[in-house]
UniProtKB/TrEMBL annotation:
Pfam families: Peptidase_M17, Peptidase_M17_N_1. It comes from Sulfitobacter geojensis. This is Leucyl aminopeptidase family protein. The keyword Protease applies. InterPro entries: Leucine_aapep/pepB (IPR011356), Macro_dom-like (IPR043472), Peptidase_M17_C (IPR000819), Peptidase_M17_N_1 (IPR048816). GO terms for molecular function: manganese ion binding; metalloaminopeptidase activity. Keywords: Aminopeptidase, Hydrolase, Manganese, Protease.
């Protein structure tokens, strides 16, 4: 079901959001019965704490949510989402004097907290619903929440139900809902139309590789999103250990992220000419799998020596990026669960990104703070270019030595974008433990920040 706010009504329950510093002053304005009720429940205003007061009919008459201290709030985000899970069933309206930006973030978090992945097992719903606070852009926040929900659904679905054909169908479903055009090149047609790297990576799988190409909008700047759609990654002939394969259903997280972002853009009718490119493959093991030591020629004409078949994501992205660049759009953005080195560098919660454009970085990081969608800038460090040049071919897909793995991967991708502004996001796409508004499982990263930054990035 779509994530949405509860309708406004006279029966909605007032929710007072109180920091520890505000609690005593607020209690001084309340009847003694209210003071006693909160004291009996041990309410101190600590972050995430809740309490409610029932009326004569036994239903909640009002509720309070602790907002902690400024120091406690800095250590997390979406604080009311944590409280929402503890409130009794009902529709709640926030009555506290929070600023508009804080209200928007907390409202988004509440909607995200109501997400459930219930394709395979029924999940209990969030009982407390939020009435959209006054002064926020409710349709925009609902669009963000539902774009994120699409991303989560796609990542959470296991590879037996989310192979290349299923990812294609998800893109077709989105295109149908939004009135977008879509074309798909599949199997050996990839060779005929000069996408050799996508074909090579995916040819060993039973489900054929494909390139998904979706377009929407006919006015405004040209924005092209490219998402890595490796629906499962065994590592190929450089087979991953079993423990490393456990989360490889999420290796299409880049594709899921760009589809979620595209849904936000189309839902809110952002005035851009949007293109979404997704190379969808499985990196499988069979007699026709590509091999270490092979040298492949890309769509762009650059040759690539294969030194590890488990560095396949950059190969499929290379052909898609070359296609994107041929139109010279105003901005190309790639998103991919690309390297373990990025996780070692910044952990699972930050989305590292690469851009040579300081204006892009400034706009993105401003938006990231506003949207509670953290990012971290990494360098396209030119002195490392030599590390991706093996001598026998133009490029090396897996430089030896282990140094700067996320940077060398980004430099590799940049070789395929010559004529367009380019930014690359090396995301994780997975929440390793439950947190407010972010259940364990698939998650979007940097998509809300990008959505918010688009007006500045594209001068809309």
């Amino acid at each position: 079901m779509p994530l949405s706010f509860a309708p406004s009504s006279d029966t909605s329950i007032p929710l007072h959001v109180l920091s520890e510093e505000q609690l005593d002053a607020w209690l001084g304005t309340q009847p003694e019965a209210t003071q006693n009720a909160l004291a009996s429940q041990g309410f101190t205003g600590a972050l995430g704490q809740t309490a409610s007061i029932a009326g004569q009919d036994g239903l909640p008459l009002m509720a309070v949510a602790g907002y902690g201290t400024a120091a406690a709030r800095r250590r997390g985000r979406f604080h009311l989402a944590g409280a929402a899970a503890k409130l009794p069933k009902g529709d709640y309206r926030i009555t506290s004097d929070l600023d508009a930006g804080t209200l928007a973030v907390e409202a988004l978090g509440w909607l995200l907290a109501s997400y459930r992945f219930d394709r395979y097992r029924k999940q209990p719903p969030l009982l407390a619903r939020l009435v959209a606070p006054e002064g926020i852009n409710a349709p925009r926040i609902e669009a963000q929440a539902n774009g994120e929900a699409l991303t989560r659904d796609l990542i959470n679905t296991p590879a037996n139900d989310m192979g290349p054909p299923d990812l294609e169908q998800a893109a077709r479903d989105l295109a149908g809902r939004q009135g977008a055009a879509i074309t798909v090149i599949t199997g050996d047609d990839l060779l005929a139309q000069n996408f050799p790297l996508i074909h090579t990576v995916g040819r060993a799988a039973d489900r054929a590789p494909r390139l998904i190409d979706m377009r929407w909008g006919d006015t405004g700047p040209k924005l092209t999103l490219v998402g890595k759609g490796v629906c499962f990654d065994t590592g190929g002939l450089n087979l991953k250990p079993g423990a490393s394969m456990g989360l490889m259903k999420k290796d299409m997280g880049g594709a899921a992220a760009v589809l979620g972002l595209a849904q936000m853009i189309m839902t809110m009718d952002v005035p851009v000419q949007l293109r979404v490119l997704i190379p969808a493959v499985e990196n499988a093991v069979a007699g026709n799998a590509f091999r270490p030591g092979d040298i492949l020629t890309s769509r762009k004409g650059l040759t690539v020596e294969i030194n590890n078949t488990d560095a396949e994501g950059r190969l499929v992205l290379a052909d898609a990026l070359a296609l994107a660049d041929e139109e010279q759009p105003d901005q190309v953005i790639s998103m991919a669960t690309l390297t373990g080195a990025a996780r070692v560098a910044v952990g699972p919660d930050l989305a590292p990104y690469f851009s040579d454009d300081s204006a892009f970085a400034s706009a993105l990081e401003t938006a990231a703070l506003k949207e509670c969608d953290p990012v971290w800038r990494m360098p396209f460090h030119a002195p490392y270019e030599a590390m991706i040049e093996p001598g026998i071919a133009d490029l090396d897909n897996a430089p030896k030595g282990g140094f700067a793995g996320c940077i060398t991967a980004a430099l590799f991708l940049r070789r395929f974008v010559s004529d367009s502004p380019y930014a690359h996001f090396d995301i994780y796409g997975w929440q390793p433990a439950d947190a407010p508004a972010r259940p364990k499982g698939g998650t979007g990263q940097a998509t809300r920040a990008l959505f918010d930054a688009l007006p500045a990035l594209l001068e809309l």
